[in-house]
Amino acid sequence: MASVTFDNVKKIYSNGHLAVDQASFTVADGELMVLVGPSGCGKSTTLRMLAGLESVTHGLISIDDVVVNEIPPKDRDVAMVFQNYALYPHMTVFNNMAFGLKLRKYSKAEIKKRVGQAAEILGITDILDRKPKQLSGGQQQRVAVGRAIVRKPKVFLFDEPLSNLDAKLRVQMRTELARLHRELNATMVYVTHDQTEAMTLGDRIVVMNEGTIQQIDAPVTLYHQPQNRFVAGFIGSPAMNFIDGHMEERDGDYSFVAEKRDLCIAVPNRSEDIHDGQPVVLGVRPENLHLIADVHGTDNNGFVIAEIILEEHLGAESHVYGKTASTTLMARVNGTSNYGVSRQIWFQPDVDKAHLFDAETGQLLSRNNNEK
Ligand SMILES: Nc1ncnc2c1ncn2[C@@H]1O[C@H](COP(=O)(O)OP(=O)(O)OP(=O)(O)O)[C@@H](O)[C@H]1O
Ligand SMILES: [Mg+2]
Questions:
Q1: Residue ending a domain, choose from 186, 205, 233
Q2: How many CB atoms lie within 10 A of CB 342?
Q3: Where residue 171 sits, what CATH number does that domain have?
Q4: 137 or 213: whose pLDDT is higher?
């Protein structure tokens, strides 16, 4: 097993496109690190540089403290699993898995042992004689993973390995990969654009956007303590609500005031960066917006009135969309609730669990201290 380090890595493609900039992170020995971000943000480029399939424009990539920038892919001791499996169609499952070992001149007995073990772990012992076209998508995926396992590489690299599978199988394979990671105790770097996959699989997650790392943290930390608006909006499904507004100071106390002044909410624990009149964005997760049928009094202190425009009943929970003067908000509430479209209702953000972002830079301004 091995650790992986990116030290200020940059990739500029030959057409001048800056695909990855200032990437610095370390994957610990035995850790499963997920790279996540929208399409085109530089995930595959980062992984391919680690595999040696793309050159590094600037910076250093190390595996176990050895700089690998100039080491050819075959000598890096990494194994990569691709989205399209890339199985050899004319070879049996056994030979697909054995191929890399044969190239490396392993003995027949050793090859048989390793393929047998990998097949056992993946539950594909009974299909070793079949050709890829006789396999389901999930089985093909297992064979592709098996081909990596038999190599016993220092680092496993996965580039969207589940995205060709249907939703149900994807969840099943995700569980299997998590189990595999535990059993092999292997160092893995896993690329996906699916934040749910990232949250459920990763020991830690690198969130990328437009070639730049936005935050590196454990899944739960990313969810509760996003460092900027991008991470806040990308991690979590359904997504966080954002309300544009500004800060207002009165007698030393600060409040967030929404654009149309239909919401005014006192903000405790303000950070030093906040000043009167500053344009900010309030971020509230759907589960932290409470619905109140009847508010006594007329001011908008801590509440915002909305008209329900959509109610989605998912069973265990319901999603209630309300149109306010400033924006549309979505609250995640108990599945048994039934408010009714067109009705007027008050949304109450839980200010202790809300996040304030600078409207211009998107950086987090103040975070509640009570959050876990
Ligand atoms: N060979 C290349 N030459 C020039 N630009 C490239 C090349 N390969 C990728 N790019 C560009 O670099 C950026 C990052 O690409 P990359 O494949 O790393 O994205 P990604 O995050 O893996 O996206 P996806 O989720 O769609 O797979 C994209 O804008 C892409 O168009
Ligand atoms: Mg990609």
A1: 233
A2: 8
A3: 3.40.50.300
A4: 213
Residues 28 and 165 in one domain: yes
Ligand with an atom nearest the CA of residue 38: 1
**Does some domain include residue 371?**
no
Q: What is the CATH number of the domain that holds 295?
A: 2.40.50.140
Q: Does the CB atom of residue 40 touch ligand 1 within 6 A?
A: yes
Q: Which ligand is nearest to the CA of 208?
A: 1
Considering the domain architecture, whether residues 228 and 248 belong to the same structural domain is answered as no
**367 pLDDT higher than 60:** no
pLDDT tens digit sequence for 98-157 = 999 999 999 999 999 999 999 988 889 999 999 999 998 888 988 999 999 999 999 999
**CA-based nearest residue to 93, from 124, 136, 131, 141:** 131
Query: What is the extent of the structural domain holding 327?
Result: 241-366
- How far is ligand 1, taken at its centre, from the CA of residue 223, in Å? 26
Mean pLDDT of 265-272: 77
Predicted structure pTM score: 0.92
Burial 263-282, CB ≥16 within 10 A → b, else e: bbbebeebeeebeeebebbb
Q: Which residues pair with 333 in a beta bridge?
A: 318
Q: Would you say 9 and 177 are in contact if contact means Cβ atoms under 8 Å apart?
A: no
Closest-lying ligand 1 atom to the alpha carbon of residue 48:
18
Pick the last residue of a domain from 233, 260, 295: 233
> Residue length, the chain?
372
The pick from 41, 157, 164 for probing ligand 1's pocket by mutation, whose C-beta has the most ligand atoms within 8 angstroms, reads 41
Output phi, psi for 139, to 5 deg: -65, -40
Q: Is residue 87 part of a domain?
A: yes
